[in-house]
Each structure stands twice: as structure tokens, then as C-alpha cells.
Amino acid sequence: MNKAVESNNLFVFQRSKALQQYCGDVYFTHEDESGFLYVLSDGLGSGQEANRAAIATIDAIKEDLQADLTYMLEKANQAVSGLRGAAIAIIKADYLSKTIYYTGMGNIRFYMIGLEDKLVFPLSGSGFLSGRKQKYRMQSFKYKPGSKFLLHSDGLVLSRVRKNLESPLCVVKLGHLIEQTILDIPTDDVTFLLGQLPN
Ligand SMILES: [Mn+2]
Questions:
Q1: Which Gene3D superfamilies does this one have (predicted)?
Q2: Domain count of the chain?
């Protein structure tokens, strides 16, 4: 599987391990006038079982888009009991307060430009969602209006993240450049979401 989704403020790219039919990374995007919610879930392993676990987390989160992020994470955690586990990150933007809320478990990475041009890259809880009860932490950061951010699974290995985020290119052009760093036949599922926040 290989696909790219392009819009003014978001570029999403996904390519599955060995170009398998099922991708173990599953993402969800929701946006309205007040902000957005983006979720990226990486089911353990690859192929259909990984895909199934990741979809279960996303489905659980979609049930209530107004829920607290830590509650979303707990619902996603319960959804994978009996399935493969998953790494996951949830980011929510509030355009009014120019704030990003972040929570996650495991190896999904998130980078954004914060106040005073600081590169912000919150660390997720260690481990992964497995169905067993865990504690989750939500963090919040003020973002720099008009700046770019990147959410990606561990299949993407990108150096010079700050340089990329500070590029004057639009998200579609920059997204295609980042895409060029990904192997034609990847050895892990790869997903990235490159977005731009409103001014
Ligand atoms: Mn992975």
C-alpha cells in the first residue's frame, strides 16, 4: 500500500512494509473551525493483525471526539485487549488558544515549533497499548502560528527535523521531499502527517 493525501494544510503519506496490502499504521484526521484532532496508531508487527489492532484503537477514539485525550488513550488501550498491541499518539489543536495538546504511548514521534521558535518534541509514555491498565499523561504547548508540525511512525527516519519544519515550502512540496527519503520497498510501515497551523 502506498498513498498520499494532500490539502492546503496537511500532507499525509503512507507506505506499508514490503508494500504489503495491509498497513500496520492507521491514522485518523478530524478538523473543524475550532481546531483539529490527529491520531496515528502503529499496530505491533505488520500486516493484517497489526492493521486490525491499529484500526481498533482508531475506532474507539472516533466514538467520542470531544473526550479528554487521556480518556481516548484509555479507550484505545481497552480496544486492543485480545489483539496485538499498538503505539499511538494523539494531537489536538485549539486554534483559539493556539495550543497543541499531546498524549501518546510508544514510538510515534511528534515535532512542532513552539514559542520563541523552540523545537518541541514531547516524549510519549514508554511501552505500548496492550489492554493492561496504565497511566497516561497529557502535555500542552503553545504553538507558533503558521508553523509546521510533523507526526510520524518509527518507519520514518528523518534527520534535520527543524530544518524541514522551518522550510518555506508548502506542506505538499515539503511532504513530497520527505517522501523521497523513504525506501521504495520499506522494511517497516511508514506514515507521516505534515501539517501547517493557521496564522
Ligand atoms: Mn512501526
A1: PPM-type phosphatase domain
A2: 1
pTM of the entire structure? 0.96
Alpha-carbon 166 to chain mean position: 19
Contact 39, 56 (CB under 8 A): no
Q: Collect residues with CB below 5 Å from ion ligand 1.
A: 42, 153-155, 188
| Cα–Cα distance measured from residue 101 to residue 95, given in angstroms and rounded to the nearest whole number | 11
What CATH number is associated with residue 30?
3.60.40.10
pLDDT one-digit tens code per residue, 78-119: 999 999 999 999 999 999 999 999 999 999 999 999 999 999
Q: From the CA of 67, how far away is ligand 1's center (Å)?
A: 26
d(CA 4, CA 154): 18
- Per-residue burial over 45-79, b if 16 or more Cβ lie within 10 Å, else e, is ebbeebbbbbbbbbebbeeeeeeebeebbbbbbeb
Classify burial at 96, counting beta carbons within 10 Å of its beta carbon; exposed 0-12, middle 13-18, buried 19 or more: exposed
* Cα 155 to ligand 1 centre (Å): 5
Q: Domain containing 122: what range? A: 2-196
